[in-house]
Fold:
Amino acid sequence: MASASPRRKDLLKQIGINNFKIEPADIDERELSKELPNKYVLRIAKQKAEVVSNNNQQCFVIAADTIVTCGRRILHKTETRSDASNCLNLLSGRRHKVLSAVVINSPNGNQIYRTVTSVVTFKKLDKEELNIYLGTDEWEGKAGGYAIQGLAATYIRALNGSYSNVVGLPLHETYQLLKGMGFSHKII
Structure:
């Protein structure tokens, strides 16, 4: 798996894929000028897959990237409390999209990919709710400044699409892509 995300690791294990190596790809994840979110997320996932596949040519390589978008604006992983506060204030009371691109390279050199979109609606956050959430530090390193699998679940009014996509890896699509490439596993 071309990712250091503990959430993606747990998600793969959830569908019975337990025997895999984690090898994060060291790539430049900056946006290109005027790059649309769906193009960006797929480009990053493909780059991750390429880098890790170069060192693991006899293996299936799963790479993924997940972003939160508000309109055409990409909300990256938050690193500071201020970043998280800005993201959450932007998302408060609004709908936004979570896009994940999954790229799988097979041992025979084939590549398959899919981009999955989920639509999330946040309630209007009051000041107390925002401060409580910021105090949890759940926002650290999270796209859009929140983790749906934590306290932020209480702020989500609606979700249209894949829950696991919002966590970081759309499981149904990932499984179908793997199956389509001939990958099989025994659930242990």
In short: Residues 6-180 form a domain with the Maf protein fold (CATH 3.90.950.10). Residues 122 and 156 are 5 Å apart (CA to CA). Residues 37-55 form the longest helix (19 residues). The two ends are 19 Å apart (CA to CA).
